[in-house]
Structures are given as C-alpha cells and as structure tokens.
Design goal:
17 helices, 6-stranded parallel beta sheet, UDP N-Acetylglucosamine Acyltransferase, domain 1, binds uridine 5'-triphosphate
Amino acid sequence: MGTTFLNGNWEAFSQSDRTFVEMLVEAGQQHLFADWDAPGTADDAKAAFLSSLSKIDGNYPGGLSGYISNARKLLAEAKVGGNPFEGFVPHQPNTVDLTRFDETYDHYEALGQKQFSKTGIVLVAGGLGERLGYNGIKLDIPVEVIETTPYLKHYAACLKAMEARMETPRPVPFIIMVSQDTGPKTLQTLEQNNYFGLRKEQVHVLKQELVPAISDNDGALALKEKYELILKPHGHGDIHMLLHTSGLAAKLEKQGIEHLMFIQDTNGQVFNAMPAALGVSVEKGFDFNSIAVNRIPGEAVGGLAKLVGNGTEMTLNVEYNQLDPLLRATVSPEGDVPNEQGFSLFPGNINVLVVRMASYVQILAKSQGIIAEFVNPKYADETKTSFKKPTRLETMMQDLPKLFGPNEKVGVSIFNRRWSFSANKNNISEAAAKHVAGGPPESGASAESDFYLAGRMRLEAAGSSVTPADEELILGVPFTNGPKVLLRPSFALTLSEVREKISGCSISGEATLILDGKDIVLENVELSGSTALVVKACEGAKVSVKGVFENKGFDLVKLTSEELASDRVPEYLKIRGFRFENRGAAIHEFDQPGEYVVEV
Ligand code: UTP
C-alpha cells in the first residue's frame, strides 16, 4: 500500500513507520499523508511529523486509534444532542456542613490531622492561565506581597507543616501535574529554591501532553499545515491518566497513602480546609469528597447534585446552565430555588477533591485513567456536519465519580467560601468587570485580600477581637487593607492550635500580624492603626509575646499609571495595582533555639 498517495515516500519508511502509517490509514487518517513532497524535499519535517504522531500514540492509553475511536463515538453522541441526564432526578447530595467553626469543625480537624501521614497532595498546574495573562507560571506568583510568598512556596510550607505534626514524620508525597507550557518553569522554580525545603524524592512532576485536534465527525485529525498537527490541551482530568500510567497511584497506595487531596494552582486558602476535609473523608468513608461552598441559585458555579434514576444514583458536578433546566424538567418547576439561608440545595464545586486511594487505584486500572472524556464541538450550522474550528476530547478531574459503581461513596463538605477558596485567575480589568457584575473578582488583589481575611477568621475563632479596615476599590477590585494576618502553616494548621497559642489579643484597622514558627505564644497582644508585628522562630525557639505594640507598620502604596506601565515594576505587583512599604514594623526573628520573651 501507500506508494501512490505517499508520493514515493513509502519506500523510505522503516518497517515500524509502515505499520504505524497503515494503522493510521485504517483509522481514517489518509489525509495526513496526502500532498506529501517527493523524497528529498522536507524530509526532516516528515520525520518530525511521524515522530510527533508516534509520541501522541504512546501517551494516550489505547493509542491514537483509541483516541480516534473515542472521538467518533463522542461526536456521534454530540450530534444527536441527547440530554446527558435523561431519566435522572436531582437530589441534594450527601453533605457535611463545615461553614461554622464549632465543635463539629474541631472534631473533623482533629481526625484529619491524624491522617496527615497517610495523605498525598496533588497539584494540577498545567493550565495556560489565559484569563490572567501572566508572563510566567501561576505558581510563581506571590499570594501576598508583604513578604512576597509564591503559591508554590506556600504549598510546600503547608506540606512541611503537615510533616511536623505527624507522630512519626514522613514526607508528604507532592504530585505536580505540569504541561509543556508550565513544566520547564515549574522545575526551574523547584530547583532554584531547593524544592522549598521538601525532599526532591517526595516531589513527583508529571507532564500532561496535548492531544490532537479533530476537524470532523469522522475523527479526522486536524492539520495546522502540511506535516504539522493542531494540538490542544486535554484538560485537568489528565491527572488521573498520569497517576495511572506512571504507576504512581498504585505505588503510593502500597506505601500506605490512603487519601489524595487534589488542589489547583492559585488557591492560597485551600489548606485551611484540608484538615477538616480529610477528617470527613476518614469518618464518613467517602471515596470521593468534594470540597464545596454554598452557592446562590443561578450563580455561574457548577452545582453538586445526587442524580437518581435509571436504576442507579451518582453525585456529580452539574454545570450551572444544565442544572436549572434539569430541575425545571423534573422536581422543581421554579428551577433552582434558594433555601432559608438563600443558598441552592446544590453546593458549588470549587474543584478541590479528596479521593480515597483504595477505590481510586481500582478505578484507574479499569478505566486506564481515562475519566469521562467529553467533546464540545462548535458546529458551523444546524446540520451539525462541520465545525467552526477543530475540536478535541477533554476531561475534567471532578468527573471521576462518573466511573463509580454502587459501592463507592461520594460526599460533599461545605466550607465557608473565602476561607477555602479564592483563586487568582483574572487580569485586573476582567476582575473589575466581574466585581461590577456582582461576582467574585478572582484576581491578584482579591486573592491577597482573602488570604488576610482567612488569617483574621482564625484569630476570631481563637477568641481574639478583630476589627477590619474598610474595603476599598483598587483599580476597580475590592481590597481590605487589614488587619493583614498571616499565620504561617508552621505556626498553625488547625483552629485548635491557634486557640492554644493565642489568647486575649485584639487587632484592628490596617495592622499586620505575621507569625512563623511552631512555638510562638501570644498573650494580650494589641495591634491597632497601621502597627505591624512580625515574629519568626526557628525549630526549638520558644517565643512568648505580650503587650501593646505601636509603630507605622506596612504602608499600602498604590501604583501610579507610570508604574503600571513600567517594565521595571514586577508583574506580580502590576496584576494587583499596589505594593507595601515597611515604615517601621516590629520584626523579631529568632534563629537559635532557646526561650525568648518579646514584651512592650
Ligand atoms: P483554570 O480553570 O484556572 O484554567 O484551571 P487555566 O487553563 O489554568 O486558565 P485559563 O482558563 O487559560 O485562564 C483550573 C486548574 O486546572 C489546571 C490549572 O493549572 C488550574 O490549577 N489545569 C487546567 C491543568 O492542570 N491542565 C489543564 O489542561 C487545564
């Protein structure tokens, strides 16, 4: 075969190239080899093309022929346009309410803390971040700019803090999914910062690959030009495939890891919810625990619903634009109606997941880690025979329960929103527009503001008196300049730890409090105005802090329009529109073990 349409190139192919090309032709991809130049012209480009096809073939379970046949099946279904939830009736899922810091919360935190030694953290960080438009990886962006702590450094500090709280410390496995866009810079950041104190062996970087775009309902792979495919991201559901194909999930299970917690690249709040969420997973025996927030009906956030029907039931994320029509067509003619507190019965998915390893590994083996792929072609017209532009198969990590059977238990843990979720996804002007529209801005400034808010929530939960500053708009994005409270993970991971270490404190206005170190105790500390107190203590340094502090602290300085346009101002400041200047903060650092008193 081949010689005719391959214009004489067939003879130059190796036997394995021939077999591979034959497979592709059988899979309907003859067009990839049409118009080839005669041997001697563009031979390097041809070889590169074959090698890129063969790489994709090797990366996808079932190879390219599997990808093409999955695409055909899903495209045929999409063309018919059936309701994916036909026959299902939505019910409230199995929820645990953790929106209040009460005994229930403490109970689950205590249980979760015991589970730290059997937990791994999975960070999906392969996204392009187009909405933010940052020149670099999102993990390098600081979550706050008083001390300029990048997200990755903060996450690593949380893992170290988990280890410090284990009875027998062991490294917490840290799995980071990158893509070709984020991989090199992620590795560079890790190497340059000595893995932020983590052991290199505990960090597992898995790279997701792009998948080929598809130009028609027959699954024809789309060409950018002769000898070059169009490739597109396959989505964050790739993490399941990579944990399977790398053998890592099975290996970690053998090493005693019982739960994996999946987190995203820019959510500094996520470890606030981690201990209690783990506790819920352990006590309730959830195979899949979705960390969620209360959602107002109609809000553009996926709703978690238990779908009952067709002889089965499953708890899934239902996109908000599908949920309302589904409710109207089944149980609720008024659609998604609020409860007494104004919230939907269907909590909002924030894509933070706690997965039980034992069932996960089995499901990965059965599915080869391909989790509920879907396709979303934009058709050229209602005949649905051609697309406006090539499409591709996608997968989302939250769809894992689509593969669950009757024995797997799915639950939802509902947390206070800004305590558990505040992402940095949007550039300033988009963020300002979102704020005007009444939604969360999810930008650099709002994420930083919420990071301090979570610190204040911790202090309040420990009985401190907290009076916040007024919210202001900076370039149209709301920001509350204080009190700016950073209780580093080394200081506390749970509320009970904060209660043990802080008593009788009061903090107000634009004050700042930063505590970094396990053995710092505050008693009757008072900070007001713009006063800042920073205490850092190394392992073995016990520091007792008392008194009413007064100084000029950290001043918020808004960037001028020249600074916003200047190349000399770091981009991480420009994406929020301000910086801080130290005007005399009280900074006490202890780098030698011993007992110390800071008193004014
Ligand atoms: P986002 O919704 O933030 O998307 O992804 P994004 O691709 O990063 O940003 P935009 O849409 O281009 O603006 C949620 C999480 O999933 C990861 C992201 O890195 C983020 O942590 N992700 C997304 C992947 O790891 N791989 C993907 O293919 C897509």
